[in-house]
Structure formats: C-alpha cells, structure tokens
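Reply to dn_fold:

You asked what the input looked like. This is it:
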Amino acid sequence: MKNKYHNAVQELLAQNPTRTFKAKELARKIGIVKPDYSNFRHGLKQMAAEGKIAKYKGNNFGTMKRATVLEGELHVKTQGYGFLITGEGEEDVFISQKNMGVALNGDIVRAQLFAKSQGRSREGRVVEIKERGRQSIVGTYKKSKKFGFVIPDDLKITRDIFVHDSDNLKAKSGQKVVVKITEWEDERLNPEGKILEVLGFPDEPGVDVISVVKSLDLPTIFPRKVEEEANTISETIPNEEVQRRLDLRKEVCFTIDPQDAKDFDDAVSMKPLKNGNFELGVHIADVSYYVKEKSLLDKEALRRGTSIYLVDRVIPMLPEKLSNQVCSLRPEEDRLTFSCIMEVTPKGEVLKHKIAESIIHSKRRFTYEQVQAIITGKSKGPFKEEIQLMHNLSQKLIKRRENLGSLNFDLPEVKVELDKKGVPIAIKKRERQDSHRLVEEFMLLANQTVTEHVAFKRGKGERVPPFIYRNHEEPAQDKMDDFKKFVKALGYPIDPNKKVTGKLLGKLLESLRGKPEENIVENLMLRSLMKAKYSADNLGHFGLAFKYYTHFTSPIRRYPDLAVHRLLREYQKPLDFQLVQAKKTKLENIARISSERELVALKAERESIKLKKVEYMQRHLGDEFEGIISGVVAFGIFVEINDILVEGLVHISDLDDDYYFHDEKKYQLVGQHTEKTYRLGDPVKVQVVRVNKDERIVDFILVV
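and this is what came back:
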C-alpha cells in the first residue's frame, strides 16, 4: 500500500474515533480501485502489526485511541498460547497462538487489548516486538532431501526454523546447533535462520550442559580485551596501599568454604573482649580496588551480573586471574579486604561497629566438613577455641532472628556427582550443618550492619545517601489466601483473620520439622512469597525480618556487592547531595540488571541439575524407590523420590484400579468406587517406567 493510502486511512479513522471498519468499507471510502484492493488489505494488516492502527476481532480496523496498548514480556506455554506479563499486581493478558504473530517466548512486546467480556480475563494480540528475548535458539538440526531445519529444544517455541544449505555450517542431521532467526515477517510461514555454532551430537560429553548455556545466551568465554585487562593486574600490593589501610594481618582469621571452592570471598575472625562481649570480624575481598568503575572488566562484570554455578562448570563473573587468584582470600597470603568489625554481646546484639578498608593474612582455609568436625568434637583441629566461640554466637544469632520473625527455610538440596565424561554416577543430598549456618549468620549480620551504617549516615535534611538494597516485600494477600487453604487441607489451619507475619509463618515451619510434608509446604511457602530483588529504594526484607539489608559479602561473584563496596569507599568522605538523583538513577540500573541476571542464573543452574537427574534415572528404568506425593493434578500425581529428590509423574491412566476424580480443595485424587485417596504428602512406592532426557521427563507407576 502506498504512503498516500497510509495517510488517508489514518485521517479517516481519526475523523471516526468511535467506529471500526471492514477493509472493504475503508477501501470504498478512500477510493481504492479493485486491482489495488489486495495490496491495500495487506497494507492495513501491516499498519496494524506496526501499531499505527488497531485491528479488532472480526477483521475490523479502527484508531489506536480506542485500544489500550500494553507493553510487557510474553510468556508462552508449551500448548502454544501465552500471557503478557506487564508487572507485579497487574492482571496478565491472554494471547492466543493466532494472535501472537511472530513473537517468541521471552520477547518484550506491545499488545493491543480486546474489549473485555464480563467475567473473562483480559485478552489481546501482539502488535509490535520491542526487543527479542533471546539472540539465539538451541535445537536439533534435521536434514531432508530438499532442505534443512532446526527443531528448537524449547517446547515453548512451536515453529521449526528453516536453514538454507549455505547457512548450515556443515552441520550433520541429529546434531545440536545454535541458530539465529534472520527473517520472519509472516506468521503464516516458518522463520528462516542461519546456524551460528555446531555443538555436537546429544550423547557427546558436555553437549547437554552447553546446550543449556547457549539456550540462555550465557557467555562461555571472556572477550579478549577483558582478559588482557585482567592480566595486567599485579598481585603485588603497593606499600603505600598497605600503609593507608587497617592492618589486620596479625589477627587470627580464616575462610570456611565448600571442598571444591576456589573463589574465597570472605574470611572471619572472633575474639573475646574484657567487658564480656566479642569482637566479630567479617572480612570481604576488596574487588573494587582492582576492578575500576567503567573499565572493561567492570562493564563485563555488570553484563554478567553474577557467577553461575552449573552442574559441571562455573561461569564466573570475573576472569580467573581475579576470581581465583588476585582477589581470592587464599591462606598464608596478604589480601586486600573490606572489613566489618562488630562488637557483639553474648546475646547477639551489635553495640558498635567499624567498617574499614583493610589488609588481612588468612591463617587457614577450612572446609565446612572440617569446621563441623571441630564443632561436634570429632576433631580437635587448629583454632578450636575460635570456632567454638563462633558456633555459640551463631546459635544465638539464629534464635535472635527467629524471635524477630525471620524465616529459616531448611529445604534439602542435592549434589550430582559426574564422572570424567560428564555422566552422572551418584546423586547425594547436601547436608546443611551448623558450620554452614555459622558462616550464613555472620554474613547476614555483616550485610545488615553495613546497610544500617549507610542508612544512619545522614546528610543535610536527614537524607539517606543513595544505596543498593536487597528487598523482600511483604507477600501478596491473594497468594497468602491460597497458601492458607493449602496448609489447611494438610491439617495445619491458619486463622484466616490473622495477618500473615514472619512469626506466624515461622511457627508453621517449626511445627513441620521432621514431618513427611515439610519440604512440600516449605516449597509452596517460598513460591507464595515475593521474590527478593535489588533496588535503590529500601523496602525492607520480610523473610529475614530486617528493616535494612543489602549484599556486601560476595563481590567476586555478585555485582551488587561490588557496587556496595564502591559506595562504602565513597561515603567515607563528605557527601555531595546535589548529585543524589544522578547516582540513584545509576544504582537503579545496576539493581535492575542484577535482578534480571540473577533469575537467568537460577534458571541455568536448575536446568543443568535437572537434566543430569533425568539422565541418572535412565539407568534406573524398572527400579523401585520410596517417595512422597509432591503434587496432585487432574491428570495424575507427582512423586518426589526421598533420597535423591527426583520428581516424576504417575499418570492418571496408570491408576487403573478405579476411576479417580480430582478434589482440588483437598489436594487429592479420590477413587469413585473404592474411595481410595492419593493425597499431597502421602508416602508411596514407585517404579521408574519411562525417561525422556530431551523433554526432562520421568514417569512412574505405583508399586502396590
């Protein structure tokens, strides 16, 4: 359609803002001759796709002023339809597959709302793609006689991507590849693309995990110039830097980390004071000394946001030269740190504190297992007195938090052990011990103290300096109402009139300790709470019951911690509050990027573990396991195996001894004739009957 028709259409619709028109009526009013009608109609659709005019149900066209256009992220379901997510607290917009156009899962799009029918949720159609959610797609390349195509691994991408022979990088049929969509303008046709990388055949070592990495557009190497910048950094600490810092090298401090850790962020120290209190020191690697703001290293660290710990590898935020060497608090080496030194009473109250740039000399690299053995008396070990003091204080800190209404989740985790080829050979539960809690409590206390330090360092007019906070907002009422119904069905009623507080939820968690349904309730409680996020506004931390909280203790692997260190250094000097707004805007951007990257990292970590769990179950086809019913749906029951935390489905078609109906309110399936019930939290025995690694699916049948 020619430009003059564009203008004519828009003028006509503007003159009739309350009306809609069929394409033929518009053509007649504008004076389109019959030979041009086909192009005119196509042009109308193009104008609607570009958001210049609105297309309503029944192929009616009208002005955009009549339509509400919302922007958000498109979340597609495996069935093909999707929802536009516009923000917390707002109703999602249903987008049918036919109204999705050429948008993909994760894209930021603009959608035009349809008129809302009474009693039905909002519905709309995508009119513009603002930003693609992913640059590349991982899938399996297939070659037919006439053409090649990629079948995406992501079941939420329902279209195969055609690849011309000249763009296939000589990939072989059946190989995993990374493909980029190069052309897709017509939703009636499949997208076209070019292969960017051939990953290998699915059964080759490492291909499964690298497929997860590539599907989320995660970096696998650092840019050459970033590595070069890192390599110019010297491990030698200048004497003038030593002289200006608080020298703690003679203090007894040490690190406590997992057995396989190499990036040691934090060290701890503790000694009794003459007044009966204790001096507790939390010493954090001073990454900000080496990674200068706006440097190539800094920009790359912000782009990554966080280190990602996959089942078989780590994708670090910083190059190895920094993360495992220069910044890592290795034993018997001088290291630059930021120290939070607190005077703490025997009851765990911080009376005063000092935050300073420092230099330490770690006396020992402990593992959690070594410290646990000292705590339990199984090992005498070095620094036994310090460790026992730390253990006693950490227990007081736990009690103190609980009394404030802090939630102590104790969800089990597993470690998947792999052989040299990446094949899973064992799945073992990670035991959360007092040594883990010791370090956790000290880090929580340091994070809280640092935030209070800044919050109470007020300038003119009692203004608080701009800062990055780790917020956890109060839960939404509707989520809590659903949660109350859930636990009531399990026999743990909560007074519906009572306001949900941390103390209330904490008491519930305590009553569940050791019960079969403990993990299920904890999981649902976590999902019912708000997600913790970074922000330049302080909203408090509901889960910890802290009014002030940030992340200060892991700058090697989290960008917000690095930013916090820079702020602490800057705020040692008089503050210029005229620059507040510009600084806050910058911190808001850091907080947004960091929150987004954290979610991607969590997804990658969970996906990598899940695929290895499923692969592990392939060798256990036919084996029987004890488990617990972890979910009840209309099409069956989900069962989680007790020892290895692998979840699978018992399909309702395999419950063939009766006709079962789904009792949603009581979270159970009930046999129509036998009245036999399968209820959430019930212990069961299952047999593995089907495993599909590509779809991450494990199916069970019940063993009677």
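The longest strand covers residues 350-361.
Hope that clears it up.
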